[in-house]
Amino acid sequence: MFRKLEDRMDSMAYSTALSQAVSILLYIHAISEEPCANFLSTKIISEQLNIPAPTTAKVIRSLSNAKLTVTKEGAKGGITLSRPLTEMTLLDVFLAVEPGKPLFKLHTDVVLQGKDTEVAEIQQKISKRFEAAEQAMRQSLAEVSLIDLVE
Fold this sequence. Notes:
Blueprint: H1 2-10, H2 16-32, H3 42-49, H4 53-65, E1 69-72, E2 78-81, H5 90-97, H6 116-142, H7 146-150
Antiparallel strand pairs: 1-2
Helix pairs in contact: 1-2, 2-4, 2-5, 3-4, 5-6
GO molecular function: DNA-binding transcription factor activity
Organism: Paenibacillus oralis
Protein name: Rrf2 family transcriptional regulator
């Protein structure tokens, strides 16, 4: 189930970290449903999802910083969800792994003699279109709770 989801999400390219974070959260959810479930180690998550250990640690750190997961150090430590998947959206995960990064970066280093005003107008139009597209993407991600991906 997780491999198919990750394969589908990888075909939509924005950030590999986004699909990895979603996979990690869904995996933790699935394992936590089992009796006697405890904190999961980063190593186990990395191995089971076939994500390099350093990448797994980095994504988990982002999820923890965003308060989507709780980590515990020590022999019985690891990671668990901070709240149910019904209370997490794809936008929450996106903001955790891509904090403060715009979807589009506008090339502004354009110098055309005598055309600066025209270039500025075009850049402004492009910028407005990109902002609208990013807002639509954020709205779409906010509408999907992680539990929707499991059910």
